[in-house]
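Question: does this match?
>
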Amino acid sequence: MRIKVTALLGGLLMVGGMLPASDVDKRTVVTFNEPVMIAGVPVVTLEPGRYAIKIVNHEHTRNIVQVFNERGDKLFTTVLAINNYRLVPKDKTMFSFWETPRGNPIALKAWFAPGDHWGQEFVYPKGLAATIARDAGATVLTSPAETVAELETAPVTEITKAGVEQPLEEADESPDSH
């Protein structure tokens, strides 16, 4: 069984390939050295390589994040993300990942730009969220959104490790639930 990938290990996965995020859209260029699954419309698995990630809308509790090739001329996916708070900001871009079964790509959980308390936690489609929640033993954000147009208005819920869907505002906030 694969060990859990933490934010620290996530940072190590981007060996030598991170450029600073811009202030407005948090655009970050990152190099993944192994395949990475990212929730979105569509869900994609990015092969090892360099990618640009940025926030499309700003100052919202619900953000739209897009993932492009490094040049920014090929869009891979558009992702719904919810604000995720951390107590101590870091001076570099940090990613955290969901554990997935051996032989599957790791799944991107959250992205924090340098110096920011607020990052982006990615929302997965219901079936995939349930699988990740079960395999990771944690609660995973989910939404029924199937099109980019639905991302800003579709409800966001959580799926527990037991497969129970619950409203986001009633989620169990105990340390072992995430």
Observations:
- The two ends are 19 Å apart (CA to CA).
